Amino acid sequence: MDIMLFHSTYGLRPAVRRAADRLRAAGHQVWTPDLFAGRTFGTVEEGIAFKDEIGKDELLKRAVLAAAPYSERGLVYAGFSLGASIAQTLALGDDKARGLLLLQGTSDIAPNAAVDGLPVQLHVAEPDRFETDDWLSAWYLQMGRTGADVEIYRYAGAGHLYTDPDLPDYDEEAAEATWRVALGFLDSL
Questions:
Q1: In the sheet that 149-156 helps form, which strands lie side by side, from edge to edge?
Q2: What pTM was estimated for this model as a whole?
């Protein structure tokens, strides 16, 4: 499977590279574009400030340019938190997308978005200050209306970026469960 994996607001940190290596070890081709041009951050607040400085349109432009050379292959779009929201936007706009793997993040959905049974898997902490229960319920219904085939996995007590061993949110049990389920999802595509 060809996977375009987008980083969180912390930037392209070692945890993203390790995730890509894990996916490669399972036989997938993975690209990890650096949407922040080498910048990484120690706190989510610093990353959000930088993201806001760049602007949503510019980030999406960078993501589209990174994915464009490979999109004809039928990519699986994936990402962590902010990267998941970017992956979602790209997958819903790419009629060749093979799947969407969202780790700790979602995004608004355009009212006219439509896909034909796009397989989508979301892994998120419970509770999650960025992905509240009300938001996730509305998001799930909207994704269903787009025609996506959605699965949601919640991890009680985990922190927002619970798959990143370098952050305080890390939860080894939830992270390993996420990777087991996600790799099975990718194998099914």
A1: 29-31, 2-6, 76-80, 99-103, 119-126, 149-156
A2: 0.97
